[in-house]
């Protein structure tokens, strides 16, 4: 039956969607390469006429392809006609046009994560920090710029103080980047709420990154002791502190009834030999899975067949159909 897309089906091109019949040689399309989205170039376009196509209904969207069109599943490539009951590699098409960041590991990267975990806010498409201490805000802005390449600056703000009963001056650092916001959620297990976030094990890649994390978290929800060499970290997120305590080899006893718990981290903790470097993904995992709920045959009318368009692509042979990974046999 051949492979390809009917003329009205759209593909995800760089710069916006294109109908299959409007794709030309030299056009750049989006593709999935492992967990990343990449760009690929159309080198040839062919067309053929068939009497039947299929509608693939996923939990994200419905798209139309040839019955033999290859689609990506966890077990490899499968024909569209056989895809019902499985899942397809997928990425949110609306996020393809956003700026992708190159994360630089090191102390600033660790500081950014530590400060965000303690005092930051991760929104749908932004990351921000609002604090009273100007020096803390400046360190956060510098770390954010160094680790991500984004531009960040301080803004004077006021916010209510329950303790003083009046607004107090403060400083805000805020960057709009859905990529960074998604990246922060990935690092802490998907939910960046301070009470539900998981310990970001990405900071265990080396001692420099982890030391930066400790400094950032201490500036937000902790303090250095004036009587002994070490720091005290405070949080009501017990699983977070429990995992951190294992890394530094410290004893940890959570406080009962939901009260904020304390973790003592002595400066001598490295001598315990509990730190083990780990390798974790720094880049955003842009791929996910979409469940195929149905595959419906659609025969052509009595007179007019479907025109299918297929492409030869380079350097990546795949492309995206409404965010779903597909490829041609070439």
Architecture overview:
The protein is α+β, with helices and mostly antiparallel strands and 330 residues long. The chain has two domains: 5-83 and 299-327, Beta Complex (Endonuclease - Pi-scei, Chain A, domain 1), CATH 2.170.16.10; 107-272, Endonuclease I-creI (Roll), CATH 3.10.28.10. It has five helices and 21 strands. The chain has helices at 107-119, 134-148, 178-187, 207-221, 238-248; strands at residues 5-6, 10-13, 16-19, 28-33, 36-50, 52-58, 62-65, 70-73, 76-79, 87-90, 120-122, 126-131, 154-161, 166-176, 222-224, 230-235, 261-266, 288-299, 306-314, 318-321, 324-327. The strands form six sheets. It has a four-stranded antiparallel beta sheet with strand order 1-19-5-4, with no helix packed on it. The protein has a four-stranded antiparallel beta sheet with strand order 7-6-18-10, with no helix packed on it. β8 (70-73) and β9 (76-79) form a beta hairpin. The radius of gyration is 25 Å and the shape is elongated. The model has no long low-confidence stretch (mean pLDDT 94).
What would you call the shape? Answer: elongated
Name given to the CATH homologous superfamily of the largest domain: Homing endonucleases
- Please indicate the percent range of residues in DSSP E strands (runs of 2 or more): 35-45%
CATH class of the largest domain: Alpha Beta
Number of helices: 5
Poorly predicted ranges (pLDDT <50, ≥5 residues)? none
Specify the CATH architecture of the largest domain. Roll
Major sheet attributes: 4 strands, antiparallel
Distance between the termini: 16 Å
Tally of domains: 2
Can you tell me the CATH topology of the largest domain?
Endonuclease I-creI
Percent in helix: 10-25%
Strand order of the largest sheet: 1-19-5-4
Q: Could you spell the SSE succession in H and E letters?
A: EEEEEEEEEEHEEHEEHHEEHEEEEE
